[in-house]
Write a structure and sequence with these properties.
The structure holds two protein chains of two kinds.
Chain A (H helix, E strand, L loop, with lengths): L3 H37 L10 H5 L25 H28 L7 H20 L8 H18 L14 H38 L16 H34 L7 H20 L7 H24 L11
Chain B lengths: L3 E2 L7 H8 L5 H6 L31 H12 L2 H15 L1 H4 L7 H10 L3 H7 L9 H28 L16 E7 L10 H25 L3 E7 L2 E8 L1 H27 L1 E8 L3 E3 L7 E4 L12 E11 L10 E11 L5 E7 L4 E3 L2 E11 L1 E6 L4 E6 L3 E2 L6 E7 L7 E8 L2 E3 L5 E3 L8 E9 L19 E3 L10 E3 L4 E3 L5 E5 L15 E10 L2 H21 L3 E10 L2 E10 L6 H15 L15
Antiparallel strand pairs in B: 1-2, 2-27, 3-4, 4-26, 5-7, 5-25, 6-8, 8-9, 9-10, 11-12, 12-25, 13-14, 13-24, 15-16, 16-17, 17-20, 18-19, 20-21, 20-22, 23-24, 26-27
Helix pairs in contact in B: 4-8, 8-10, 9-12, 10-11
Classes of the chains: A mainly alpha, B alpha+beta.
Bound molecules: protoporphyrin IX containing FE.
Protoporphyrin IX containing FE sits at the interface of chains B and A.
Chain lengths: ~325, ~600
């Protein structure tokens, strides 16, 4: 019998390597956008023949190829070749990632999200999935380096530090709620991640817009010129967050039902419960902030960022270093 | 049919557009809410526009004025937001410091490790964060704010649910989402007979408006007709569920808080350790520990009884991943109901047993070696299973035997049970597996004052050796007592004997059942849990409605003129509504189809129309 878990490990590291490639392509894409938009003022379109040389960009970022339109022409029309390479690699990496996750599940004979290593695997799988699915409806490729970078770091760290052998489940985890609660939690994490990336972009864009308004010469990274304005970024972040928030609310309720069965009470301010609650309250605050005078815009973006920081803290720090009933990291 | 749509997008469209509407009454014009059907919002809400009565400008001096001002502050969006953030921050220390409610042993440990810091932190309630004055203050203020905020909104919304959609604005073209067309009904216009043509056009306009009215009704809109001069118009509104959902959500939160607060008074949670073969009767005195709400009377327990018939457990095989890991715990119980009937029941992790309003949970399990102690004359002074507490995953277990009477001195014994004993290189024992493959009991004997005569409560699981003299084991001349099931040893100083009874059933071929097991059960009663769940699910439903039901107004206007019927369609979002533009287009297209597919004669540019 082939050792499925070894296959899983192998495909996971392959996925990590491909994600690294995706990250690099996306990063060069941003660099190129900066260069292109800086040149765009000067250059008249010379025709977009740049597929081949765009690949080994960096050096010839200043060349005219690919730069189309004058200032103010909608940059959306441009075909960001490097971004598309980044996306293709992300899709490819995701397929390996999916294979790794599925084989891990088959090897374990259960859903592949029962210890920290597996939480990281499914969580990043969903972050990438939500991003890629949204790409079919919205142009979000400017978030690519952000998303693939985040996934790369989380997945790499988990694979390197959190790996545990497949072991049978401990009794409290033998429940349908493991399937539902953990999956939905991971899904909302994925949505919050996307909102987080958009909020960061929003803050950068807002800084740029302010500098333009003040007539400053330096307006920050040039790629921002190819991004939507702050209002659009904020609206997108908001929509991802509210969907994530609903899932998070469900996570909280499902977790309480499970806790009632497994631990004999639905709520006990266990460390993990506490942080789930804190995150919920933070995002409720974010939603309110968006509806409050003087809080829309940058302050609410900061709240979205704080919310996601708490999500990551809950995942990486609370799971590993805090003691409590949710001691399912599998690490000893 | 071709048409033009205005395409001006500004960032703050709701406010700018509503105030631009022409024929709405002056008052409503200034508020930006052209109808009573707009949801009420606190004055610092982003969609709020001052209503012109000047109320919020200057607080009247005097107590009432200040109280009103304070109340307005408390029920503002800003304060709600600050309180929410304060709540999040205030919850953090409870995850850093051990809490008495969740981890009492952790608190004791913290106290032992930080004797100087502990009293300071304790005074700040950092070990009872969630019942601390400051935490309570924050959430109580938040809920007062919440109630103060939603009551006027509920009243307002109740009226809005019965209100008519607002009057059609004079200049629809000023709205972002606007489509204009000209429709020439069959037969065209008759240039020779002006009066006839006018009548025809008016009839056609009426028909168009009537069709739109039906169409919007079918789409779930509430509709009203506003006709004026040669203009027929339909005003429609939908999405009242959005505000209903928002209110349901906030009310349900209050519901959760109240049920938790009241429910706690009627809830109880008790613990009981039951050894195989033994019983537990659900009365206050039979519990090992009990935590009950203030309204739970001494006699409010259903007098059912439980007997632990057996306890199941499995171990992962050697050579498998997770070898030796225990699981599939199941306590097989006989239940005698208060009415005397009996039944079997099993308690597993994740599967509590329900008896009446109580739920029985399996919290833990362990070994309870049966110990018999006889005095020098051979008279039994103790013979019972003694619960040992597991110390590690291989079930190395520690237990205490106290014999206050019957021997020449009070005697305490500190024992270790190794289910599968192995000798380490150091000479110490350890257990290699949780099952009873090679059980070994070691005991150290102490004599002296057990300290139970002065009435101080002492844990049965702890032996305070301060006032005792050690008789066996390290630092003494005698070796610790070592027993396998069925063996007997002499106690030091000829005090008597001790026997580790073999509890195996008759004819057993191995030692796997030689020691009885015990389970630690938790009995939990909380009728409010169901209501908390109901409110939580209500909150979730309300949230879904509040966030995803689009709230929008639609207008269709048909103006009769010499060259046909001028049709206008416009939409206005109340809140985030990314699909509004598509909805206006759909409306126009659907209307056109319903108007017998008649084509318009020419386009009218929407801008400036
Ligand atoms: C327990 C505390 C609270 C929580 C957890 C909470 C949570 C939420 C959430 C999740 C939403 C978004 C869903 C929706 O739009 O219906 C919301 C909206 C809203 N909340 Fe609260 N809320 C709380 C207290 C308050 C208080 C005290 C007020 C009044 C000052 C308030 C006023 C509002 C308003 C006006 C909206 C609509 C926002 C909009 O127009 O988008 N909430 N709240």
């Amino acid at each position: 019998m082939p050792d499925l878990d070894s296959i899983s490990i192998l495909t996971l590291w392959t996925a990590i390597a491909i994600y690294a490639g995706s990250f690099i392509a996306y990063a060069f894409d941003l660099a190129r956008r900066s260069a292109v938009s800086a040149e765009a003022k000067v250059l008249v379109g010379v025709g977009a023949g740049g597929g081949a040389d765009a690949v080994e960009l960096g050096s010839d970022a200043g060349s005219a190829s690919g730069a189309v339109g004058s200032d103010g022409a909608p940059m959306k029309k441009q075909r960001f070749v490097l971004a598309r390479i980044g996306t293709s690699l992300a899709v490819l990496g995701w397929l390996f990632h999916l294979t790794a996750t599925v084989t891990r599940g088959v090897a374990a004979g259960r859903v592949p999200w029962a210890n920290l290593y597996e939480f990281a695997m499914i969580g990043t799988l969903l972050i990438m999935l939500v991003y890629l699915v949204m790409l079919t409806r919205l142009d979000l490729q400017y978030l690519g380096s952000f998303i693939s970078g985040l996934v790369l770091v989380l997945l790499g760290a988990a694979a390197a530090n959190f790996y545990v052998d497949v072991t049978p489940l401990v009794d409290p985890l033998k429940s349908v709620w493991l399937v539902i609660h953990v999956f939905v939690a991971s899904l909302s994490t994925a949505l919050f991640a996307l909102a987080f990336a958009l909020s960061v972009m929003q803050l950068m864009q807002s800084r740029r817009e302010r500098r333009i308004a003040e007539g400053m010469a330096k307006t920050g990274p040039g790629f921002l010129r190819t991004l939507p304005g702050t209002v659009r970024l904020e609206n997108m972040a908001y929509h991802f967050t509210v969907v994530g928030f609903i899932f998070w609310t469900f996570t909280l309720i499902a977790g309480s039902i499970w806790a009632q069965d497994a631990w004999g009470r639905y709520w006990g301010f266990d460390v993990k419960e506490t942080w789930t609650f804190i995150i919920w309250v933070l995002y409720a605050g974010y939603i309110h902030a968006r509806a409050t005078r003087g809080w829309r815009g940058n302050p609410s973006a900061w709240l979205s960022i704080t919310g996601f920081a708490a999500v990551i803290f809950n995942f990486a720090i609370v799971n590993v270093f805090f003691k409590g009933l949710h001691a399912y990291s599998g690490l000893s | 049919m071709s048409s033009s749509r205005s395409d001006k997008k500004n960032t703050n469209k709701k406010n700018s557009d509503t105030s631009a509407l022409g024929d709405v009454p002056a008052q409503a014009d200034r508020t930006g809410s052209s109808a009573a059907s707009d949801p009420l919002r606190p004055s610092d809400h982003i969609d709020y526009v001052e209503n012109g009565s000047g109320e919020i400008n200057q607080p009247k001096l005097g107590f009432v004025g200040w109280a009103r001002w304070g109340w307005r502050q408390l029920t503002s969006m800003r304060v709600a937001l600050v309180l929410l953030l304060a709540l999040a921050i205030a919850a953090i220390p409870g995850s850093i410091f051990p809490q008495r409610s969740a981890d009492p042993n952790g608190v004791l440990k913290y106290k032992a490790e930080n004797p100087d810091l502990f009293p300071v932190l304790d005074n700040l309630s950092l070990f009872d964060v969630y019942s601390s004055p400051w935490f309570s203050a924050i959430y109580l203020l938040l809920f007062i704010s919440l109630i103060g905020c939603i009551i006027p909104r509920i009243k307002h919304h109740a009226k809005a649910l019965r209100a008519q959609p607002p009057r059609t604005p004079a200049r629809l073209a000023r709205l972002d989402d606007h489509v204009a067309r000209t429709w020439v009904p069959d037969g065209g216009t008759n240039a020779d007979a002006d009066a006839d043509a006018d009548a025809d056009a008016d009839a056609a306009a009426s028909r168009a408006a009537g069709v739109a009215e039906k169409q919007l009704k079918a789409l779930g809109y509430r509709v009203a007709r506003y006709d004026r001069g040669r203009t027929r118009s339909v005003s429609a509104e939908r999405g009242y569920w959005r505000e209903t959902g928002n209110l349901v959500f906030h009310i349900a939160l209050v519901g959760v808080l109240i049920t938790v607060a009241i429910g706690g008074g009627y809830a109880y949670t008790g613990q009981k350790v039951v050894v195989e073969g033994a019983s537990f009767v659900n009365t206050l005195i039979d519990y090992n520990s009990m935590n009950r709400g203030r309204f739970v009377a001494d006699d409010s327990f259903d007098p059912y009884a439980l007997t632990l018939d057996s306890f199941d457990i499995t171990y992962e095989d050697f050579g498998q991943p997770g070898a030796g890991q225990a699981g599939n715990f199941a306590a097989n119980l006989s239940v005698r109901e208060p009415d005397g009937s009996t039944r079997e029941g099993t308690v597993k992790v994740n599967h509590p047993l329900v008896i009446g309003g109580d739920k029985i949970y399996l919290l833990g399990n362990g070994y309870a070696p049966t110990i018999t102690v006889r005095n020098a004359e051979g008279v039994k002074v103790l013979s019972q299973p003694v619960e040992f507490l597991p110390q590690d995953s291989s079930m190395t277990s520690m237990g205490v035997i106290k014999i206050p009477d019957g021997l020449s001195e009070q005697v305490g014994m500190l024992g270790f049970l190794y289910p599968t004993a192995v000798k380490l290189e150091s000479g110490a024992f350890a257990s290699a597996h949780g099952a009873l493959q090679l059980p070994l009991l070691t005991l150290d004997v102490y004599e002296g004052d057990l300290g139970i005569d002065d009435g101080t409560p002492r844990s049965v699981y702890q032996l305070d050796t301060n006032d005792l003299t050690k008789l066996t084991g390290r630092t003494t001349d005698l070796k610790s007592i070592q027993l396998q099931p069925g063996e007997t040893a002499d106690l030091p100083n000829n005090m008597g004997t001790i026997t580790f009874e073999d509890a195996s059933p008759a004819g057993a071929a191995d030692t796997l059942q030689s020691v009885k097991r015990y389970v630690s059960l938790q009995i939990h009663h909380d009728d409010s849990a169901l209501w908390v769940l109901v409110f939580a699910l209500l909150a979730l439903t309300g949230l879904g409605l509040a966030l995803f039901v689009p709230r929008r107004r639609m207008w269709v206007k048909a103006t009769a003129s010499a060259d046909g019927v001028h049709l206008e369609y416009a939409g206005l979002a109340r809140g985030d509504d990314p699909t509004l533009a598509a909805a206006v287009d759909d409306l126009a297209r659907g209307h056109e189809r319903l108007l017998d597919g008649t084509t318009p004669r020419r386009d009218i540019p929407a801008k400036g129309a």
